[in-house]
Amino acid sequence: MINFALQELKLLDNAMGSGHILVYAFDMFIDLYRVEGYREREAAELIMKHNLFGLEIDKRAYQLAYFAIMMKGRQYNRRVLYKDIKLNLHQFVGLEKVPTEYYERLKELSPLSSDAFIVKLNDFKSKLLYFEHASEIGSILNLHGLTLRDIQEFRDFINVFDNYSNMDILYGFPEVQKRLNEILNIMTILVTKYSAVVTNPPYLNKMSTMLGKYVKDNYPNVKTDLFSVFIKVNGNMLMKNGYAGFMTPFVWMFIKSYEELRKFLITKKSISSLIQMEYSAFEEATVPICCFTIKNTKTEPVGNYFKLSDFRGGMEVQKEKVIEAIQDPNISYFYQTNQNDFMKIPGSPISFWVNKNLIHDFVVGTRMDEILQPKVGLQTGSNDKFIRLWWEVDQTKVKYDATSISDSVQSRKKWFPYNKGGSFRRWYGNSDYIVNWENDGYEIKSFVDKNGKQRSRPQNTVYYFREAITYSAITSGKSSYRFQDSGMAFDHAAYNLYIDDYFLLGFLNSVVSESIIKTLNPTINAGSTYTGALPIIRDDESRIEEDVKKNIQSSRLDWDSFETSWNFLKHPLL
Prior knowledge:
Rossmann fold, Adenine-n6-DNA-methyltransferase TaqI, Chain A, domain 2, nine-stranded mixed β-sheet, four-stranded mixed β-sheet
């Protein structure tokens, strides 16, 4: 019974490339068979026939993988090359036209009645259409509920040739038959459930028109990148309690566009283990990578997580740290986290290092966006054309204290202060630019390309020239929030929070806020989504408000102490 179970273990690499994952798996299966008493030469043959499966769209990669597995089999069994072993490795090919004569010949040989034959033929043709672009779509091909039984019926339907007549050969029926059976083989692999699916999926977010439309139509919730499509497809190819393993960019763990993928994994699967690697773990390239496995069950929510982002030195160092954590689960960068807690955090980021107190704050606190709504500002379409540093223009054409759109129009001025975000600076400052907003931004609003399409994008103009809390959308380090005086328009790279609340400004500039934002999204892009998701729990408001006002005043004095400020009078040391 144990030996039979071994042969039932099926491992699929559905983006196998040159087969390096399958080669590694071959050795693992050899060990499994050896433990159960098999001789290596017998085990090698069984592995090639029953355990390893692979799909690939590139012909050269497929050939290399086929060769690699045959040579691996030869390593353990010298006679394997003399046996007629057909590997379960296949290359996707596009659908070629099937001659009408072929179908007519099938009808002659078919045991089905005429009406039953036509029904089955139409069904078969409709399923073949799935392969019209198979050489580009590959392993994410959606067969829409096709079953193994359906495929076997199709196989029985076309395999009615006991032998080929001279006319059959003349019309090329043997080649057609071989091609159709290969398509049925690929169908079989796509609908089979596996003990394990392991792959390094392709990373692609700029797809061809055809592939992009296919992904959007078939996988709308995970369409951001091809690797996210593979994660969902592979997860659905598992038998109960089967495992899928991946190496992918780790952006899916945090960024909003992958939120549906995270919810799929959290609610439908169990994240068994995850290793978040250091950016330079691969010496050849700096890429944000994670390796993780999921299990096809919902009953094991506690997973093992390794945060290796602080350990530089290449893959060997990463390997050593994983082994250390396995040997000592109390080590600081190893976490055992219940994935259901991720759903309590806005956006469901895979922030496995978050402690229970912070999760509690998300549950009981008031979301920031329930108190206020971050607003994104103007995209001019050409900053070189419409934006200047304040000292570059005639100051008689600048109005620094407009209080509203109507006030700006009545002033008949051309230039107005403009908040573009800027570098790290808290409490006050980064007031360097002015924008051409003459006559309510007439020139910007009229800025079009050669086809008449508007290039600019004025947004939330009703909020221009109001006091606000502001911050930069892009940051390479810590976030910084500032008080903005009235009189300014603002850029799409500068988010404004329109509320007279010094407590919130103090909270936003605190180490607590910074820690929470990094929990929600540990990338360079702060964005309004993550600020809006911050949990607010008010305490000791009066003292905090007084401290914030003092900080604003100190930062204002510092900013105005230099000639780059339009409020500069004289240096404080003079």
